[in-house]
Structures are given as structure tokens and as C-alpha cells.
Amino acid sequence: MSLIYVLNGPNLNLLGKRQPHIYGYETLADVEADCRKVATELGHEIRFHQSNREYEIIDWIHEAREDGAGIVINPAAFTHTSLAILDALNTFEGPVIEIHISNVHKRESFRHHSFVSHRAEGVICGLGTEGYQLGIRRVATLIKTSEKK
Known about the structure:
Blueprint: E1 3-8, H1 20-23, H2 28-41, E2 45-50, H3 54-67, E3 70-74, H4 83-90, E4 96-100, E5 122-125, H5 130-148
Helix pairs in contact: 2-5, 3-4
């Protein structure tokens, strides 16, 4: 049973309350419950975290280096600004999937660039909170593939 980290960036604690026309009505607790269900079905555990503080996300990535097999990350606004999160992800050896609830390519042009994408094996955007479940499924597949090598 491998451990998958699900990391969430700033303002995702307001999911379901903030701009529901963009992000939907599901709360972060709903997303966590869905993630736990999918991970359990696939034989994995998850650590689910959210922070508005960049350094905490970096600390969780460092923690994942020790006991994590994969990372699903929605860096939120840090996507477009954080070289520090990219640098931390570059120290992690397992698969990384980047998630965005909205389709960032249909939004403001500053949202079109992602530092995290330089490290991620894949990016899921615009599929709502279902993207998290798909991200966990993909990380699980990549973990299984790497175990066969």
C-alpha cells in the first residue's frame, strides 16, 4: 500500500464558497472524501493537505520524499508564481500530477503559465473536482508501472 500526497494551495479552503460559478459547490472536505475513496479502491493511502502558505506546501513535498510514492497537487495561484514549489517537486522522485479545477486556458492570460508543469507527468484542468480522482488514478498507474521495472 503506497502513500499518495494530495496537496492544495491557497484559497482552496474556500472551495464551495468562493466563486462557485468557476469552482463549483463541492467543499474541500467533499474532495478529500472522494480522494480517500478512490485511493482505498486502488489499494493506496493518502495524506491530504491544504495551505495558504507556500512554505507548508514545500515542507509537505519534502515529507513526501521520505514516505510518499506520488503527489497530486493543485498549487492554485502558486502555479504561476512559485519557483520554490517547482524546486521542491524536482527533489521528489515519484510521479507528480498537477490539478486545476477550472480550465485555466479559458481564463486570464497570466493563468496560462505553470511552473509546476515543468515537473508534472501530467496536467488535469477544467474537469472540476473530478480531476482529483483522475489524478489519483493516474498516479496509482504510474506507481504500479515503476514497481514493475
